[in-house]
Specification:
Length: 222
Amino acid sequence: MSTKVKSLLFILLAVALSLAVLSCRGGGSLKATDEEGPARVETGEGAAGEEGAVKGKVLLAIAQRGFQDIEYDAVRKALTAAGYEVVTASLQRGKATGTSGAFVDVDLSLAEAVAADYAAVVFIGGEGTPSLYGNADAHRLAREAAERGKVLAAICLAPVILARAGLLDGKRATVYPSASRELTEGGATYTGVGVEIDGRLVTGDGPESAGQFAQTIIELLP
């Protein structure tokens, strides 16, 4: 075998080995993730469910800045999978940014939201939640949901919104531990569990309970 042929075979073998290594490392995918911008969570989607029909709409209320991404995503995905359309509300339309940097499209402002249009109203927590503690539209929305017998839910720091709206007096509820005093001052019995149910009221204590929180809401929905 000539020297040129041997050299050519050696080069081909080297190329083949290089391709094999790239394949094992997933080197075939060359996405420039740093050019894609922050992660985006789809919102406002309808869900087909097992029978292809949307069962109803659920409103997720979040802070414009600093909502809890994990809680939002867990609840949104569970509701969508169960056949419910998810609508997102915040202080204003546009974008809302989560604590981990993800952003979502806000479908409508809290001022525009009416509880009668939804099967449930759910307040998501996060470090930005205090911006809604004294918000009149958040209070109105929560009161409308309670008065109409809708499922009313809040997780992490968000149960404080319900307490300040006067909706936890005489109720069993949980919240992120650092905010437990807000609940007791609002007349609630703070239970400290991951997820608490009192009638059609559901409260959760934080991200680790988001899955159970979402499933509990679904079980109460029509």
